Amino acid sequence: MDNIELIKTASDNVFILLQEGSRKLVTRNLTPGIQVYGEKLITIANVEYRLWDPHRSKLASIILKGSSVSIKKDSEVLYLGAANGTTASHVSDIVSEGVVFAVEFSPRAMHDLIRASIPRMNLIPILSDAMRPDSYKNMVTQVDFIYQDVAQREQAIIAIRNAKLFLKKDGILVLMIKSRSIDSTGKPKDVIDNEVKKLGGFFNVLELIDLEPFHSDHVAVVAQRV
After folding, report:
1. Which of 26, 8, 60, 53 is nearest to 176 (CA)?
2. What is the CATH number of the domain that holds 171?
3. What count of other Cβ atoms lies within 10 Å of the Cβ of residue 10?
4. Residue pair 168/146 in contact by the 8 Å Cβ criterion
5. What is the tens place of the pLDDT at every residue in 187-226?
6. Pairing state of beta strands 218-225 and 203-210?
């Protein structure tokens, strides 16, 4: 393809694709020729990439906005709230030599997640409640990253409970705070500020990233375990 430039991001296997003034995010496809959710496949210099839509993935949106998050190809990731596997499959691309433990509570979403995991040997679906990490402690190893995107009220508490069991010292938490899931009547900024304060003492907050214009009333918290 002509007039295309790939710019590496802080994370392995993730690139910003520049073409005719547009900026798009792509991941190097771990399973060439296979789509997960109908995403576009692009081949450049005999390497296949998957288009990663920031409107469908909050992790894609913060990377495109310049977050310092750096996920390496051999990282181990605990993904809380993996849903149908859209973002989880891109994380699987990123950690091509690592593993993604993908926890999801909904049996209906788990059906799609399992289907996405079949050709991806590093994507491990776990049907469980992220509020109860004891229920899957025998299936998950110590991890470098926790990525959390759950529609439950106690989002900071869920993060801390899982970090205590699984996150390595100095490991990174990427927490997507959905203000409407916590308190649908409060001001989003106040709800988010209160949730971030709960992380104090266990995490050092490194970044707060507003997900606009891709996602409304959402903030990403990047924090490091102390």
Report:
1. 60
2. 3.40.50.150
3. 13
4. no
5. 767 778 888 889 988 999 999 999 988 988 789 999 999 9
6. antiparallel
Question: Using CA atoms in the order 80, 86, 89, 95, what is the torsion angle rounded to 10 degrees?
Answer: -60
Residue 129: how many other CB atoms lie within 10 Å? 15
Q: Answer yes or no: are the C-beta atoms of 130 and 162 closer than 8 Å.
A: yes
> Per the structure, how many domains does the chain have?
2
pLDDT in tens, 152-183: 888 999 999 999 999 999 999 999 987 666 66
Q: Where are the beta strands (DSSP E) in 9-142?
A: 14-19, 22-28, 41-44, 47-52, 76-80, 99-104, 123-127
What number of other Cβ atoms are within 10 A of residue 96's Cβ? 18
Question: What is the distance of C-alpha 220 from the center of its chain?
Answer: 10
Instruction: Say yes or no: 148 and 212 in one domain.
Output: yes
Give the distance, in angstroms, between the CA of residue 3 and the centroid of all CA atoms in the same chain. 30
User: Cβ(98)–Cβ(73) under 8 Å?
Assistant: yes
- Please check whether residue 6 is in contact with residue 17, taking contact to mean a CB–CB distance below 8 angstroms: yes
52 and 66, same domain (yes or no): no
Please indicate, yes or no, whether residues 31 and 139 belong to a single structural domain of this protein.
no
